[in-house]
């Protein structure tokens, strides 16, 4: 293999695909990036057998071929190159890179040992706006479970309906649900997308009204983003029936200015920072006031916030960190806490927007 390409193009391509390089594997070739050159194109591919990313750049291909370079060191090396033209030459198990008046050389893996990326038919799909997908991922991904004991919950549930998509993530302590419109779809179905894959797709798209199309085939999902193709294996297993978790009726509804509430919680987290205290904060809620309290070895905090309460007064405690992530992704003026008592789940939503986005969090033992 021998080719000439732009250094910045190569660096950008490596930065895109390296997210799929395996970091914990007994198969060393999965730590590499496969480079295939033919017909004026250099294609870079990385996979850990669950997530695959492929990116193509233009190149002057002098001799077609393919090689697998060590991902991390090659990535660190090429990102230091500039826009000058570089020449890649693969001979046997070595890859030489010529740039300006210098050269480097890398030991490589046999290309024939690299696994083939699963192909996904483009018959079944759903399509949505880039901006809607980015907002959806931002609002639910932080609630995904990180415990290997619950593999199904390590992804985001996508329920594809005729006109919208319902996304749900939960970890046993909290649940986030977001509804966004679809541009079009060919099927009504449910699938669980690994959070790593959906975060990477969201990162690679622009925040605009262009659309992104997800192709579905068997237990794989594929997205094409210009010169980049992302393929992921879907998570098998039955997702939790979240509808049984979310209460439908509440006795108390508390309307709070979002900016004031977020500031109070930010300060409460600082004061409640203690392994023993587990970021515990208490809300003492009356008709026109909510007192936010936290205590730890670091210090104590007590803040009074103006609220409007419909229903009975209530005192309830939470892990404040669970509110931080939720509030930081909100863009509304007022949030509403929907509660029944101090031991039942609290559902939080933007004022007037409970159908589009809700966040459920379980209380903890009171201070």
Provide an overview of this structure.
The protein is an alpha+beta fold. Helices cover 17% and strands 44% of the residues. The strands form 4 sheets. It has a 9-stranded antiparallel beta sheet with strand order 6-2-3-4-18-17-16-10-14. Strand 12 and strand 13 form a beta hairpin.
What is the number of beta strands? 27
Strand content: 35-45%
Radius of gyration: 25 Å
Decide which structural class fits the backbone.
alpha+beta
The major β-sheet equals: 9 strands, antiparallel
Distance between termini? Answer: 67 Å
The global form is elongated
Number of helices: 6
What are the segments in which pLDDT stays under 50 over at least 5 consecutive residues? Answer: none
> Helicity range of the residues?
10-25%
Strand order in space, largest sheet: 6-2-3-4-18-17-16-10-14
- Round the mean pLDDT to the nearest integer and report it: 92
Care to give the gist of this entry?
Helix content is 17%, strand content 44%. The protein is α+β, with helices and mostly antiparallel strands.
């Amino acid at each position: 293999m021998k080719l000439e390409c732009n250094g910045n193009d190569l660096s950008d391509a490596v930065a895109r695909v390296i997210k799929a390089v395996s970091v914990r594997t007994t198969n060393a070739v999965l730590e590499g990036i496969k480079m295939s050159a033919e017909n004026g194109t250099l294609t870079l591919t990385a996979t850990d057998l669950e997530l695959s990313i492929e990116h193509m750049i233009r190149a002057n291909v002098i001799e077609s071929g393919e090689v697998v370079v060590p991902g991390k060191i090659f990535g660190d090396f090429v990102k230091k190159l500039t826009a000058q033209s570089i020449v890649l030459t693969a001979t046997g198990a070595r890859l030489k890179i010529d740039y300006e008046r210098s050269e480097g050389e890398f030991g490589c893996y046999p290309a024939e040992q690299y696994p083939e990326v699963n192909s996904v038919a483009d018959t079944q799909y759903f399509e949505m706006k880039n901006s809607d997908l980015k907002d959806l991922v931002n609002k639910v991904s932080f609630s995904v479970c990180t415990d290997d004991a619950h593999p199904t919950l390590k992804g985001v549930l996508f329920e594809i309906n005729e006109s919208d998509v319902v996304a749900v993530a939960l970890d046993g302590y909290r649940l986030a649900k977001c509804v966004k419109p679809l541009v079009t779809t060919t099927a009504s179905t449910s699938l669980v997308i690994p959070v790593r894959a959906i975060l990477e797709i969201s990162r690679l798209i622009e925040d605009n009204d262009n659309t992104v199309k997800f192709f579905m085939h068997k237990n794989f999902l594929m997205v094409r983003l210009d010169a980049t193709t992302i393929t992921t294996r879907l998570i098998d297993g039955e997702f939790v029936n979240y509808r049984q978790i979310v209460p439908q009726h509440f006795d108390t509804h508390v309307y709070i200015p979002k900016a004031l509430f977020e500031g109070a919680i930010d300060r409460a987290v600082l004061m409640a920072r203690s392994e023993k205290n587990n970021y515990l904060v208490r809300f003492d809620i009356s008709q026109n006031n909510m007192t936010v309290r936290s205590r730890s070895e670091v210090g104590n905090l007590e803040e009074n916030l103006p609220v409007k309460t419909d229903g009975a007064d209530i005192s309830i405690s939470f892990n404040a960190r669970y509110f931080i992530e939720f509030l930081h992704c909100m863009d509304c003026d007022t949030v509403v806490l929907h509660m029944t008592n101090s031991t039942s789940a609290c559902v939080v939503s933007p004022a007037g927007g409970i159908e589009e986005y809700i966040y459920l969090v379980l209380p903890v033992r009171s201070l």
